[in-house]
Amino acid sequence: MARILLVDDERDVVTLIKFMLEKDGHMILSAFDGAEALAKAGVEPRDETAVVPDLVILDVLMPVMGGEAVCARLREDERTKNIPVIVLTAKGGGEVEFDPACGETSHLEKPFDPKVLRELVASLLEKR
């Protein structure tokens, strides 16, 4: 179905989401920090042969480069600027305020309901 880039430094979260979305038929590319995510998307370093994901699921707080910086960098690249982004955060208090340069994002707070994540993924992919 879709290629999804899943970025989170918590390996258990990656394992859970990957298992769940692969059951739905999606191909999951995993990254455990922001720099690795940009490399897998072919943004930094620039790689025209990289598989551009159809959707990105992105943690906020990560080592090397946080989710906000990754999102902003994805929006700057012509090939990735329109990819839907789901932001996962352990921060309480509702939606995370990202820099406007990051553009529109969807948000889920950890711990999240797997059913809600699956529905959000399906909805965003359907709009593409």
Question: Can you summarize this structure?
Answer:
The protein has 128 residues and is of the alpha/beta class.
Can you give a write-up of this model?
The structure is a single chain. Helix content is 34%, strand content 19%. With 128 residues, it is α/β, with parallel strands linked by helices. A 5-stranded parallel beta sheet has the order 2-1-3-4-5, with helices on both faces.
List keywords for this structure.
128 residues; alpha/beta; five-stranded parallel sheet; 4 helices; globular
Q: Helix segment count?
A: 4
% residues in beta strands = 15-25%
Following the backbone from N to C, one meets helices and strands in this order, namely EHEHEHEEH
Give the helix level as a range of percent.
25-40%
Poorly predicted regions are none
- Mean of residue pLDDT? 90
Biggest sheet strand order reads 2-1-3-4-5
Secondary structure class reads alpha/beta
Topology:
Elements: E1 3-7, H1 11-23, E2 27-31, H2 34-40, E3 55-59, H3 67-76, E4 85-89, E5 106-109, H4 114-127
Parallel strand pairs: 1-2, 1-3, 3-4, 4-5
